[in-house]
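Board notes (copied after class):
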Amino acid sequence: DGKIVSGGYDNTIRIWQIDSSTRKYLCVEMLEGHEGYVETLQVLTNGRIVSGGGQDSTIRIWQIDSSTGKYKCVEILKEHKSFIYTLQVLPDGRIVSGSFDNTIRICKIDSSTGKYQCVEVLRGHEFEIYTLQVLPDGRIVSGSYDKNIFIWDGEEY
C-alpha cells in the first residue's frame, strides 16, 4: 500500500506514509513492545509484520486491530537464547530467524491453535548468524561470523 516499515535502536517499529501534498514520508504509527532494539523485520503476505528483537531475543507478530485500525502485537515467540539478528519469510509463510545463539529456527503456524511454533532448529554454524536470504526455490542461505556461508535445502528443514 506504499507504506514503509522500519525498526530502530529506540525499541520501536515505525510505519511511514507519504504525504501527498509535500511528497515527504511521515510517521503515521509507532509500535512499542520490544524490550530492546528492533534489529530486523519483514512484512508477511497477509499484511502482518514480523519483527526480531536484538536485546530481548523475541520474535513478535503484529497485525491490524479491526476495532482501532492500528497494529498491535498478537504473538511473542521466545525460541532463541540470544539476540535475533536476521529473519526472512519463506514462500509458504514460515518464518526463518538467525541468532547470536548460532542457530536458525523455522516457525510455522500451528493449524490447531493459529499460533506460530518452532518446528525446526538448524545447527552447523560455529558463531553468530548475521544474515539469511531465501532463494526463489525455497532454499535458505545463511552467513555467519564463522566466515561460512551455508545453503540449506528443503530436506534439511
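Comment from the instructor: Residues 53 and 108 are 18 Å apart (CA to CA). The mean pLDDT is 93.
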